[in-house]
Amino acid sequence: MMALDLSQNKHTDVSFEEKERLFDEVKSDSRWDFVLNGCYECGICVAACPSARFYDFSPRVIAQAVAREDADLVYTLMSDSIWDCSQCFSCDRCPRQNSPGQIITIMREVAVKNGLQTAKKALEGYGRIIYKIMSTGSQVSPDMLQPDAFPDWGTHVYEIAENLEVWRKALPPETLHTTETGWKIDKKTIIELYLIWHMTGVMDLIEGVDEGLFMILVDVMEERLEEAGYDDITFD
Amino acid sequence: MAHENIKGCIILQDLHYSVKDNTWIRAEGDIVTIGMTDIAQSLAGPILHAKTKSVGTVRKKGRPIATVESGKWVGPVKSPVTGEIIEVNEGLASDAQLINRSPYRDGWVVKMKANNLDAEMNELTTADEAVEAYRQKIEADGIECSHIDDTDTYD
Question: Which among A115, B20, B85, B136 could bridge A208 via Cys, Cβ 3.0 to 4.6 Å?
């Protein structure tokens, strides 16, 4: 019998065994026992959800799909709908103490760890943010305020982008007189951050999702780690 | 200069391309000039920073020779050949949008002394073969090139 294709061609379909394996990985997460208690369809989570107002998205569908152990539907949601959640956890007001938002957190992590195509696509737009935070240890840089990246700022963003150097110099603290980083980071701090990301497997995760991003981060990190005396650390 | 325009994307016939990585090379002996294609600059959007690796850096084919940042994207320029960087485009440090305006001329990225050029050239595509490969890629990915003001023109 041909399996029901719930993907609507939005993502690559995989075998049912693979879907079950991914769902088992979700269920084996240590947080799993605290995020799902059963759903009686009251709809409070949907009513509270800002994403449900704007997208074809329902936190109730997430809670019910996992409660029914519907591996087919869970895979479909993991390949599409979970990326519509804004992770605000408004759904935590569930009277049964379910947390669709936290279920989604786990599903997203499994999607990333397994390098699912949709995880790659969903995270594509965050590449520069991750690069900035991880290479500089600083927050999102002011020079991200470009008309093509933030059209929602309106025409005002043209003026900001054009005169950014001047605006930043007008800020009183000298540490903020930068456009490529939010502020200056202490060398010891950034080296510790690189070591943490190396040891905890964060870099392996990034390699699975965005090879180009991994490559340029490694370039920056290996050079600075070597300067700091950690010349035995490699990421490949 | 012989070129093809596909959906606004310029492809020069005399260059050798790594279609996968969207880079080109122009070889003179074993010295190669490397840059990003018109398609690459279009996909990136207006470029804010282009940081090249230093002169003297030895790179294998496929490894990054520069990091390019636009408002919404960051990524490597991957070397299409193996060799040592002998010169970098100093102009990019103060005006990274040279890559947007002139991807095949003033916006070149680095020059390398290649170690294994004859073998590696065979893995790149050129002339009609390159045009056809890009035509397929542009259609498959729904690419349409866009240009900022004062971009090079080709007649």
Answer: A115
